[in-house]
Design brief:
This protein is 49% helix and 7% strand. Helix 2 runs parallel beside helix 5 and helix 6 packs across helix 11. It is rod-shaped. By secondary structure, the protein is mainly alpha-helical.
Length: 259
């Protein structure tokens, strides 16, 4: 394969010139294929994603895998040149990892609350998701115990949320004919309702408060995350009615956490 061949653009589609133009797949060629797969982080299936076999002389991922494994000893020169050139045109995989600090996790949780878009919804039906990034990867990063993640995964996810507008939570209308109760006694049912919404959404008190504090529909300073936690665990016996109603409504507006 010449230097000119290696620089062929991605849109290059080889045309078989001679059915006899087959060459042996040497150990050196197999090594080249494996090196490129490792360098880019792309397997044969990922390399050919979006390409129909009919567009590239019938080449498919299974065929490429047999070349790499040695199960097939020869290949058409044009097909082999195309696969090598396509791999060589791909960028290096990004192996830079970033630690999952509480600040990183909180940034994502805050964005989930702000947009009302959970991990499953933000990644749904996108065709530009980085190779290897799955819903379970981000879920473990945000809510699990993993200590680090590929940096471009986090950068990609945060960019998606940054491009998503704020969720709209309608203010709770007050009935003017009824007197406004400034403080209410917290019952077991009310504590259970808060706990159930926290567990369902996977959003903890601090992330919820961060969003409420910035929300244009919130015309008061929200309670602190520790106050809300004291409501739930029973340390606080009463709460401001407007605080309790807004906190519960905000949690109920969030999507389910991805299990």
């Amino acid at each position: 394969m010449t230097d000119d061949d290696a620089s062929k653009p991605d849109c290059y589609m080889p045309v078989l010139r001679d059915t006899q133009d087959y060459i042996p797949i040497t150990d050196e060629i197999r090594a080249t294929l494996r090196i490129e797969a490792k360098r880019t982080g792309l397997g044969a299936a990922a390399l050919l994603r979006g390409k129909r076999p009919s567009e590239i002389n019938g080449v498919n991922s299974g065929m490429v895998q047999t070349w790499m494994s040695g199960a097939v000893k020869t290949a058409h020169r044009d097909n082999l040149d195309y696969i090598i050139a396509r791999w060589q045109s791909m960028p290096d995989k990004e192996d830079v990892w970033t630690p999952l600090t509480e600040e990183v996790r909180m940034n994502i949780r805050t964005e989930i609350v702000r947009t009302g878009m959970g991990i499953k919804r933000i990644l749904h039906d996108r065709d530009d998701v980085p190779q290897g990034l799955k819903e379970s990867t981000l879920t473990s990063a945000v809510y699990g115990k993993v200590k680090k993640i590929r940096r471009h995964y986090i950068e990609y996810a945060l960019l998606l949320w940054a491009e998503t507008p704020d969720a709209v939570i309608a203010p709770i209308p007050l009935e003017p004919e009824k007197p406004i109760i400034k403080r209410i006694v917290l019952t077991d049912d009310m504590r259970s309702a808060l706990l159930a919404e926290r567990e369902r959404s996977g959003v903890m008190e601090k992330a919820l408060v961060n969003w409420l504090a910035a929300s244009p529909v919130t015309d008061f300073r929200p309670p602190s995350s520790s106050v809300i936690n004291h409501w739930i665990i029973g340390h606080a016996k009463t709460a401001r009615r407007d605080h309790f109603d807004m906190v519960l409504a905000a949690w109920r507006a969030l999507p389910d956490a991805v299990s």
